[in-house]
Specification:
mainly alpha; two-stranded antiparallel sheet; 348 residues; globular
Amino acid sequence: MKTCSLNMLLRTTLGFDVDVKNKEAVECLKASDDYTTCLSARLARPWLFSDKIFKFTALCKRMESCSNLAHNFLRKVIKLKKQNMIHSGQLNSKNGVKLNGYTHFSNGVTTENGNYLFLKSKNKAFLDLLLEHHFQDNSLTEEDILDETLSFFAAGAETLGSAISYVLYSIGLHEEVQTKLHEEQDKIFGNTDRDLVEEDIKRMEYLDCVIKEGLRLYSASFVSRRATEDFKVFDYTIQKGSIVVIFNYVIHRDPRYYPNPEKFDPSRFFPENCIGRHPFAYLPFSAGPRNCIGQKFTLLEMKTVCSAILRKYHLTSIDNTDELYKISNLTNLTNVPVRLKFKLRNNT
């Protein structure tokens, strides 16, 4: 699933179609994963909070190595994409347009009153949009673009692969849930093998609830914020500058909002059962003005992958839930493999 999520991110976020066996891409994903693990290890060791001490440790060197590998890979992708946008076609003007020190030629651009404009087209990746803005306004530098794409890449590849794995694992544990999912998929697609379209996604109401319940039980372990002013929580005063850690694991198991919280129950997210629930009782993508900007995109990807698998296979989870719980880093609840058996369904 991590390899699958890597490929989806490369295509949709970076607009970079690459073989999933590409060594650089896979190493970048591993580096991102390892960086998060190292960060978790640092947070668990208070004596490493000081940068003056931390910079002399092997853990610091390991994190720097991971960071450099990811940055170098993404710089290469940005450079290739930029060159491709410049040289992939012809402008209406035979001489092209000089901008930011380059003469630009692209099928996706035209000129109007001396301005550099991109025509509307389908299937633009996130990086395409950033580069378009970069060509129009060089105040958005390549380093800015690197920061934005790295955020998507690092945050998305690890969490998306893990999230899909946990949802499939939960489905494989609960036969009654899987039966309802198969019925929903069969109702939408019948016995056809046609591609999924946007309207199909909207009809997957039960799958939507299953995914949300999976994210309730198996979302990232915690998120954090820095307090910008003093404030009180019950009888405690949180001082300005403090790091406030919110443990999703505990919040998502609060019996006030989720009776019998360890039970996997997609009906918790039926519309009628969500009425009156506190909006911050469910935080798989954090919340507030700094929540995850890719949450809708992530849910779309999860539905697409789960649908493709459920249409063809019956799932059986091999391991008990107790064998999986082992918090290892910021974005993943386990470093134990999530193992499933796949069996072709009779209707395929």
